[in-house]
Structure to design on (111 residues):
């Protein structure tokens, strides 16, 4: 079982940046899928960015060119660098590794 802990959320003005972190512990061997998702109030959880163990990445159209997913294997941590933030990026952000989910971190972008 993998335990995931997100951090880095907070309040930021539109146009600003945040970097989310997702630290993994436990049975971390064999992780082949890493993703960041978000859920805004009244909306379904949606994929933001994903990273496959081959190195392939995929992004939601709404964040392409602004967000970057990456991983530091030495630290067992996945990151989501978010630039040029918009009010519509406001949501709870969750990381996922294989089938395990973190508890979420709130990102609020003020316009």
């Amino acid at each position: 079982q993998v335990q995931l802990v997100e951090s880095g959320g907070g309040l930021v003005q539109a146009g600003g940046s945040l970097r989310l972190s997702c630290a993994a512990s436990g049975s971390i061997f064999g992780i082949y899928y890493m993703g960041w998702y978000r859920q805004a109030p009244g909306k379904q959880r949606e994929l933001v960015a994903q990273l496959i163990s081959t190195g392939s990445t995929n992004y939601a159209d709404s964040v392409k060119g602004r967000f970057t997913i990456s991983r530091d294997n030495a630290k067992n941590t996945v990151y989501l660098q978010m630039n040029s933030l918009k009010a519509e990026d406001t949501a709870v952000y969750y990381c996922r590794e294989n089938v395990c989910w973190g508890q979420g971190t709130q990102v609020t972008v003020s316009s």
Notes: The first strand starts at residue 2 and ends at 7. The chain has a mean pLDDT of 95. The radius of gyration is 13 Å.
